Fold:
Amino acid sequence: MTLTTIVYSIIVLGILIFVHEFGHFIVAKLSGVKVLEFALGFGPKLIGFKRDETNYSLRIIPLGGFCRMLGEDPDEAGQIGSFTNASPLNRIGIIAAGPLMNFILAVFLFFIVYSIMGVPNPVQTEIGEVLPGSEAEEAGLEPGDKIVSVKNEEVETWESIVQLINENPEQEIELTIERNGDIREVNVVPEEDPQTGAGQIGISNLVDAGIFTALTEGTRQTVWFTGMILVSLVEMVTGQVEPDVAGPVGIVHMIGEVAEMGLVNLATFAAFLSINLGLLNLLPIPALDGSRLLFILVEFVRGRPVDPVKEGFVHFIGFAILIMLMIIIAYQDLLRLDVFD
Structure:
């Protein structure tokens, strides 16, 4: 594991954790709940300072964080400004704000990516870019050319063009293009991608630019990834697919690999991780936000809160189990990466 990988991992995970905990922090403050400590990381304190009633700290293990509010300790329940004194709706808002901020961060990261790269327009067949030195350039294709057919098969979407080219690696194919109103035929031999085996000629489609377009696509991608992850979770829980879970070690390794592919890819992967973090925290697992929301819903149904001591014990047991699972998954990550060989 290189120093670059560690640095990128600390930055990415630090941003994801900060945004999550800041969601809890800011809504707690707005709700009149006292925040005793806002911390990034776990373990011994590296640096810290106090402002008003809140201690701000940076801790040695950069794999989490916390926003400790007055009243989370059963001994503090009932005090003025405590979490337990807030209304159920305010408490729901405080707890849900963390995961919500992770989804907002994902939208923002995708927005940045699409603001830089543009949003591909799938319902047109005009070439937006021709890579220098590519098969397409050698064949005489130019930006602005509209592809009418591939191998005498009419195409109306960019996806259909890509599919036909992908299916014919190292085989000469004929493209019918329209340029400045003239129709012409161009022969090109797609080069085989060594990793996927698919044919490629070095063209990309036209992209739409603009803030609104980038924001719309960023939101759409966040919703799509959320749905995809939820489906994967259901399939794993029901045994339809084998569990494939990466722990901190695996995630750090993946961040290092993606970082080598450029900052745009890293931002996209960070958005994906942020969605995962938001969804994970909404699961009704003791010690996670979803479990705390569940206790508040139980309070709605019962008409009175659960005994704080009992709730605290459930979260403590859940936290201990989560730590054990993280250790087991981290060990499996190390085995998968052949660290012990």
Summary: The longest helix spans residues 88-117. The chain has a mean pLDDT of 86. The domain at 120-208 is CATH 2.30.42.10 (Pdz3 Domain). The CA atoms of residues 119 and 217 lie 7 Å apart.
